[in-house]
């Protein structure tokens, strides 16, 4: 599995009041962040009515042993493009490793392996991604739109999608109920 210059095991958490409803309480698993830009996969919300077995059927892949789990809204960029964040016990064609936390695959081989019961032991499937041009994410972070947070296998694979945002703040000792969407002026 290739390991490129990736941001090591970081979530990007949307701050309240950031002003973009597409990212309200967003949790983005960062895959790349360098001088050329940034890319992440949303893991904080699900696509209504879409399941893995349905997606496999749409792709003409026999669902076989694949569980009927929901698909994550990976982000607003290329919403028809699929990605799988997965445990490191599986690697396939063009898989990349994100720190020591997980792998990222965007080819059909991972879906075929999951359907055959030979895929990763833990995984999340998402459609679309979040992307930023060079310097864009850095600038957004200075305006308090995003909070970088350590990611963990537990938060990524074992915490419910609807709880991931709040639990990621709590893991940093921050009570998300006390966060406000406005800053004051002195």
UniProtKB/TrEMBL annotation:
<comment type="similarity">
    <text>Belongs to the UPF0301 (AlgH) family.</text>
</comment>
<dbReference type="GO" id="GO:0005829">
    <property type="term" value="C:cytosol"/>
</dbReference>
<dbReference type="InterPro" id="IPR003774">
    <property type="entry name" value="AlgH-like"/>
</dbReference>
<protein>
    <recommendedName>
        <fullName>UPF0301 protein FHS50_000712</fullName>
    </recommendedName>
</protein>
<dbReference type="Pfam" id="PF02622">
    <property type="entry name" value="DUF179"/>
</dbReference>
């Amino acid at each position: 599995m290739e390991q490129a210059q990736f941001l090591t095991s970081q979530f990007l958490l949307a701050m309240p009041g950031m002003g973009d409803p597409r990212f309200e309480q967003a949790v983005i698993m960062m895959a790349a962040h360098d001088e050329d830009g940034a890319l992440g996969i949303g893991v904080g919300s699900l696509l209504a009515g879409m399941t893995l077995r349905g997606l496999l059927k749409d792709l003409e892949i026999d669902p076989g042993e694949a569980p009927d789990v929901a698909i994550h809204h990976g982000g607003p960029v290329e919403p028809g493009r699929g990605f799988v964040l997965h445990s490191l016990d599986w690697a396939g064609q063009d898989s990349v490793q994100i720190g020591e936390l997980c792998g990222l695959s965007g080819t059909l081989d991972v879906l075929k392996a999951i359907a055959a019961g030979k895929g990763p032991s833990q995984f999340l499937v998402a459609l679309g991604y979040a992307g930023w041009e060079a310097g864009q994410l850095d600038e957004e972070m200075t305006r308090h739109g995003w909070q970088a947070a350590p990611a963990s296998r537990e938060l990524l694979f074992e915490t419910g999608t609807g709880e991931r945002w709040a639990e990621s703040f709590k893991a940093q000792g921050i009570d998300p109920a006390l966060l406000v969407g406005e800053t004051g002026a002195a």
